[in-house]
């Protein structure tokens, strides 16, 4: 009946006692709870990554995953739609934005496409977005040609701000637009348009506006007449001329030049015939008296 | 004496460090059991070490968070007999208490009952330097006490000033700040065997603990078992432990005498074991369940089975009547109480104004002791239990834990001892820097 074997000692051994005390030490518990797992994870990960092949494999895997996601049909862009552009501009746009569809929307640089679209002269403003369904939409606002400019490089269409829209082969194709000529005329298109506006009354007679010395305007009329306008306040000068014309039929007279360059001293230049007949008339009037 | 100062001061510093940390273990190393309580000091008056009694007698400042008891091993009459065994028992208790408290303790305050404590009354007097008593004066008068030759191999365990007299006024608790010329003091000094303390230190050190205090178990069980008026008016606390019975006499809230009778509950068990020829563990069990000191007619018919596992039917089926058992126990208890009476008489306990005797400790739970004890010790005897402290488990509230609980109170509210005061400068070694500083202070 006596228990066989050694009597079990209930006392902890010295080492188990120390271990127990160690486990009750707050710093050691913290180390076990936080420090040791962190250390283990760090060790395992760095041990795994010590091999360059494995690192490369991980990088490849990441790239592959990225490509897989990018190539999903939801993100693919299949065609490009151009809105608000005439056929020629649309042609130009397709030429200038070379994209071979289908392409992932991650690879499209919309801002760059927009900048390139706006590089076309005829495009005033472009908005680029990807519509659901994989359609790249380029919405274009075109420039409206408002004048024809005969410059050194030939005929060009300019919009109201003087920006080039397109070149023109023949003046006759856009005979509805007024004509400008001379160097630097494109820089002063708004003023030219203003001048055209106030000169509506003599519009049938106007052939065009000539920029002289890139600083002032000449109004070229038919019958080789021209109105020389000042640098400043050309509009009111022209209005004065038109007013004179209304009242006294100035331009119907035998003049070649109405010189308004100095507004305080408007000058007329008559034709040779007119000048001679004027001289004769005035002499016939004044001769008896002077003699 | 400087040696003593040094070691006790080191212990004091250690205890301060423990209180600062907030956790300290209290270790009652007895002959029959080792109790370990873990105290946590917290609350607003955590470091309230000022004089006077705080609210709840300083109890509010600590809480017992771990308690464990284990059978003592390798102990005899309150002394360490087999050191590795004792060390294992201490480890068991400390580990279990730590497990319960879920904290690690590094400091232990220990009490023991053995070591043959011897009490000395010391007296000293000194002129005071300033017009009123300062702390330095108290230190000087304490230093002026003539220390008796307590012999080689003895160590001072307690040295408590118990009374101060200024000129012709005596009975002062605290003379500081009072005006007078001549200060005298009475001091109670308790010495124990050096070997005991050295063994204890070694054991504690082997358990990776730091000793933060040392107390006599007779003293600490007096703190916990005597109520306030008993401590004030004079009473003796008799801590009937397993291997030794400690007795301490208190008056005016100071211990004035302590002694040990080297008899205890284990001797009763041994008597039963020898008398009935049964193993010690069975004897202990029978003593605990059926023991008593006053026999009645009923006890003749109350048969106790002794049991046994020898295989011999006749031997294993023996019975004994309770009256026989009491017949074994009673003479030993009488002998014990008579020894206590003798020691009390030798200490002059008769001359105290109040002669209350409080029995506590594990052996005081013997039924019928409240009838037997007055016959030997006098009429004013009661069985005492330790006061309640915060968080103490129900299992540790019995009389057997009075010294463990007293040690808690001792840790929380220590009595000022000799070494708590500055050493007077003239007692320093000649080439001490402090002495030079003192000389400068006095002369400039």
Can you describe what's shown?
The complex is a heterodimer of chains A (291) and B (444). Chain A contains eight helices and 14 strands. With 291 residues, chain A is an alpha/beta fold. Among the domains of chain A are: 73-142, Ubiquitin-like (UB roll) (Roll), CATH 3.10.20.310; 181-281, Rossmann fold. In chain A, the strands form three sheets. A nine-stranded mixed β-sheet of chain A has the order 8-7-6-9-10-11-12-13-14. In chain A, strands 2-5-4 form a three-stranded mixed β-sheet. In chain A, strands 1-3 form a two-stranded antiparallel sheet. Chain A is rod-shaped and about 170 Å long. Chain B has three domains: 1-116 and 193-224 and 387-444, Nucleotidyltransferase, domain 5; 118-192, 2-Layer Sandwich (Dna Ligase, domain 1); 266-326, Actin, Chain A, domain 4 (Alpha-Beta Complex), CATH 3.90.640. In chain B, strands 3-2-1-6-11 form a five-stranded mixed β-sheet, with helices on both faces. A five-stranded mixed β-sheet of chain B has the order 14-13-12-17-18. Chain B has a four-stranded antiparallel β-sheet with strand order 7-10-8-9. Chain A binds chain B through residues 1-2, 9-12, 14, 17-18, 20-21, 24-26, and chain B through 70, 73, 88-89, 91-92, 94-95, 98-99, 102-104, 206-208, 309, 311.
Radius of gyration of chain B: 23 Å
* CATH H-level superfamily of the domain at 181-281 in chain A: Cell division protein FtsQ/DivIB
Structural domain count of chain B: 3
Helix content of chain A: 25-40%
- The ordered string of helix (H) and strand (E) elements of chain A is HHHEEHEHEEEEEEHEEEHEEH
User: Could you please say which CATH topology of the domain at 181-281 in chain A applies here?
Assistant: Rossmann fold
Biggest pleated-sheet summary of chain A: 9 strands, mixed
CATH class wording of the largest domain in chain B: Alpha Beta
